[in-house]
Amino acid sequence: GLILAVLASGLFWMYFQWTKKKGATVTEETGVFRSIAGIGLVTVFCAIIPVAVSNRHISFSTWLDRYTLHTTVGVVLLVTGGIFLMIKNQGRLWLLLSLLFLSVLTHYSNQASFRNAWEIQKQLWWQLSWRAPQLEDGTVLMVNLPSDIYGYEEDYEVWMPANIIYNDVPNTVRIYSEVLYPGSVIQVFRGATEHRFIRNIEFDRDYNHALIISMPGASSCVHVIDGERPELSLNEPPIVDWVAPYSHIQQIETDITPSQPPEIIFGKEPPHTWCYSYQKMTLARQRGAWDQVIALGNEAINAGFKPLDQSEWMPLIEGYAYSGDFEKANSIIVKIYDVSNLRYNLCISVLKQKENPGLNLPAV
After folding, report:
1. CB atoms within 10 A of CB 138
2. Each residue of 99-111: pLDDT tens digit?
3. Distance between alpha carbon 48 and the CA centroid of its chain, in Å?
């Protein structure tokens, strides 16, 4: 981005010098520039009126800055008129160069931000398709993404792509969603049902069918949380900790032909690295297919893959333990036992021996 900004500024400077040699001059009639600035000011004012009338507001710290997009023509006129009214001679050149430099950097940063946001969302939907072959009607998805890359602000950002993947009936909504924020967390705690109406689309979402999905960081896989046995990453935000026990893993239909995200929207299927194996291991664990869990884990390890998020060892640890291979289970446990929340996850698994006598994790 910096190179592009310097290049653009350099080209503008050369063009400016070339026009000077050609004898081109800029008129100094202040009346012209007053008119330009005035037109720009009126344009900006008129462009903002619809935003105010529709009870919207502009926030440069969120995606609500989109409400400034249609004002850009007026802003350009206002700034240009102001520059030529208040600044003379060489000062104009340096100010214009500075504005050009900053604008190129800004546009480059914006495109990088949008690119990264969409890349992380593509990862979300591909990994969810590996993990969840199908979702029950009425499932309410609540998704956390890495906050330094992107965060959902509207529920339709989730339920629209979810229905593209999991709903084969056109013009219907069978998978719902809500943004994770304190208000929706309270609704989850209450097991509430609420009516949603947006742009002539309406449905009722029942938070007793909530499914919590989290990607704690860019180096983590997508974690579909089981409320009966939350296995939370060290990087998980507190809000996910709060709602994790209310995640209903039974909303996933495991014995059905997997749904496939359309490539025309979500791009080509990502390479099958550790996250693919992790999603398939957790799916096999939900089915109780422990031999398959072990086979998938061993295949990934033999291929040189391993998790960057240590919580993703949990399915394989449990697979080894259920199959009686405590030596291999213990060899992984010693790697992660110093991480407090993972130690808690292990303790929870051991406590569940009362319900599952076949599980016999060794003490460390």
Report:
1. 15
2. 888 888 888 888 8
3. 29
Task: Determine contact, residues 311/285, Cβ cutoff 8 Å.
Answer: no
Smallest CA-to-CA distance from 335 within 294, 284, 291, 301 is with 301
Residues spanned by the domain of 64: 2-86
Same domain, 178 and 144: yes
CA neighbours closer than 13 Å in the CB half-sphere of residue 42 = 6
CATH number, residue 360: 1.25.40
149 and 232 assigned to the same domain: yes
Alpha carbon 247 to its chain's center: 19
Cα–Cα nearest to 215, from 178, 245, 180 = 180
CA 333 to chain centre: 30
DSSP assigned state of 250: G
* Secondary structure percentages of the chain, helix, strand, coil, to 5: 60, 10, 35
- In the chain, the number of structural domains is 3
Map residue 355 onto helix, strand or coil: coil
Q: What is the pTM of this model?
A: 0.81
Please tell me the least confidently modeled range out of 13-22, 71-80, 145-154, 261-270: 13-22
CB neighbours of 184 closer than 8 A, spacing ≥ 6? 142, 178
Q: Are residues 181 and 59 in the same domain?
A: no
Joined together, the tokens standing for residue 45 give 């004012």
Identity of the residue numbered 291: D
Report the amino acid identity of residue 134: Q
What tokens were used for 254? 């495991």
